[in-house]
């Protein structure tokens, strides 16, 4: 017979860990935390810059340091079972989760579920970025993982498309590794990132930010060799004029994140098509009773600190739901 668990949390990033600890503090006795990676911590493991924890811990931490403050507590709690390398691939309305693990396929039925599955990056294919398809074009978060976790440098001369926080952080990261970051190109009138990141990541490193500009074409056969840049008007239409070229061997694309909610969708939960986030009665709620979504899966957050705060709430919401509903009779 399939084993039934009180609370299953999918995703072991800051959201999943905060939810697990808060659910325990609110009296949930049995928590299973599924994480597809081999470590807890989620995206924080690749964010080796500082800027985490200013709100929650009143301390300036790196991503891994911030994560570590939760990993230790999760690991110590014997009523939280952490299952790493466990990839949830199927979810049904009656709260059955199917999970792929090395050499095994596991099915678990839960009384309550929290999805803390984070986001994936939007790619070049999702925006109008014409040109050839050479090597050297990467989503910025992937480039961050390559540099910070794998020890690879994606190139020597880079242009960054998009000035959200990931693009800004990567401009500085590449500059620190000796890459010539030629420009950050932003189609909007202002940067989409935090002001502190514009100052600390671009201005302090002399990296130009071209607002109201777009990359109109990527050139290169085997490898990127240049991009064309044009200025746009208020309606994001190209202004007349020749524009200019920037020689480069790398283009990082940082044009937003998409919350990962395909499992919820699979179970028939209502999803907002525009944002790919669950539709529910309030923060963390979905349209399926007892099923919650928190962290970047619920909405894209600027700061991990706010992810922690709202995911602790998700843990308490799941505990309240469990307290209100009878466990099924055996
Ligand atoms: C480049 C970058 C820079 C940032 N800089 C800062 C900063 O300076 N300061 C700051 O406060 N915040 C920063 N952030 C934001 C912060 O890192 C995020 O808001 C936070 O990590 C989101 O937490 P999360 O747990 O929702 O998602 P994630 O950290 O993405 O964790 C989601 C977890 O779910 C797992 N998962 C997904 N699907 C499944 C599945 N089907 N089965 C099992 N496991 C699954 C993933 O493997 C992952 O471990 C930055 C983010 C990025 C990307």
Structural features, described:
This protein is an alpha/beta fold and 330 residues long. 25% of the residues lie in helices and 29% in strands. Strands 1, 2, 5, 6, 7, 8 and 21 form a seven-stranded mixed sheet that branches. The chain has a five-stranded parallel sheet with strand order 10-17-11-12-13. Strands 14-15-16 form a three-stranded antiparallel sheet, with no helix packed on it. Helix 1 (14-25) packs across helix 7 (304-324) and helix 4 packs parallel to helix 5 (195-202). The longest helix has 21 residues, at 304-324. It binds flavin-adenine dinucleotide. Flavin-adenine dinucleotide is lined by residues 10-16, 34-37, 42-44, 47, 49, 51-52, 87-88, 116-118, 141, 144, 165-166, 169, 260, 295-297, 301, 303-305, 307.
Please outline the helices and strands.
Blueprint: E1 4-10, H1 14-25, E2 31-34, E3 50-52, E4 61-62, H2 63-76, E5 80-83, E6 87-91, E7 96-101, E8 104-115, E9 119-121, E10 137-139, H3 140-150, E11 157-161, H4 165-176, E12 180-186, H5 195-202, E13 209-211, E14 213-219, E15 226-231, E16 244-247, E17 250-253, E18 257-259, H6 262-266, E19 271-272, E20 277-278, E21 291-293, H7 304-324
Parallel strand pairs: 1-2, 1-8, 2-5, 8-21, 10-17, 11-12, 11-17, 12-13
Antiparallel strand pairs: 3-4, 6-7, 7-8, 9-18, 14-15, 15-16, 19-20
Helix pairs in contact: 1-2, 1-7, 3-4, 4-5
SSE pattern, N- to C-terminal:
EHEEEHEEEEEEHEHEHEEEEEEHEEEH
In what range is the share of β-strand residues?
A: 25-35%
Bound molecules: flavin-adenine dinucleotide
Helix content: 25-40%
Principal-axis shape: elongated
Class derived from helix and strand content: alpha/beta
Distance between the termini: 11 Å
- CATH hierarchy class name of the largest domain: Alpha Beta
Overall domain count: 2
- What's the rounded overall pLDDT mean? 95
Q: Outline the biggest β-sheet.
A: 7 strands, mixed
Q: CATH superfamily membership of the largest domain, which one?
A: FAD/NAD(P)-binding domain
What's the tally of helices? 7
The fold-level CATH name of the largest domain is: FAD/NAD(P)-binding domain
Rg over C-alpha atoms, rounded to the nearest angstrom: 22 Å
Number of beta-strand segments? 21
Q: Low-confidence parts lasting 5 or more residues at pLDDT below 50?
A: none
CATH architecture of the largest domain: 3-Layer(bba) Sandwich
């Amino acid at each position: 017979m399939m084993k039934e668990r009180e609370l299953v949390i999918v995703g072991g990033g800051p959201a999943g860990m905060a939810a697990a600890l808060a659910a325990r503090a609110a009296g949930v006795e049995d928590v299973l935390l599924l994480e597809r990676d081999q470590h807890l911590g989620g995206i924080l493991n690749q964010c080796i810059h500082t800027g985490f924890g200013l709100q929650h811990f009143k301390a300036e931490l790196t991503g891994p340091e911030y994560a570590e403050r939760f990993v230790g507590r999760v690991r110590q709690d014997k009523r939280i079972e952490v299952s790493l390398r466990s990839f949830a691939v199927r979810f049904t309305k009656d709260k059955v989760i199917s999970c792929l693990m090395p050499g095994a396929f596991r099915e678990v039925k839960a009384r309550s579920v929290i999805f803390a599955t984070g986001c994936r990056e939007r790619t070049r294919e999702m925006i109008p970025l014409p040109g050839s398809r050479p090597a050297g074009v990467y989503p910025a978060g992937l480039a961050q993982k390559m540099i910070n976790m794998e020890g690879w440098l994606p190139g020597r001369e880079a242009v960054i498309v998009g000035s959200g926080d990931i693009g800004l952080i990567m401009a500085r990261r590449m500059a620190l590794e000796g890459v010539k970051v030629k420009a950050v190109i932003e189609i909007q009138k202002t940067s989409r990132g935090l002001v502190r990141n514009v100052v600390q990541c671009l201005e302090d490193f002399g990296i130009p930010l071209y607002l109201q500009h777009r990359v109109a074409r990527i050139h290169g056969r085997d490898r990127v060799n240049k991009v064309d840049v044009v200025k746009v008007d208020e309606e994001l239409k190209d202004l007349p004029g020749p524009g200019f070229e920037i020689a480069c061997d790398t283009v990082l694309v940082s044009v937003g994140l998409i919350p990962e909610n395909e499992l919820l969708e699979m179970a028939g939960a209502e999803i907002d098509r525009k944002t790919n986030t669950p539709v529910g009665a309030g923060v963390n709620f979905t349209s399926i009773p007892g099923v919650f979504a928190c962290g970047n899966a619920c909405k894209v957050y600027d700061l991990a600190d706010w992810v922690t705060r709202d995911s602790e709430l998700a843990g308490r919401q799941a505990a309240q739901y469990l307290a209100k509903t009878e466990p099924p009779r055996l």
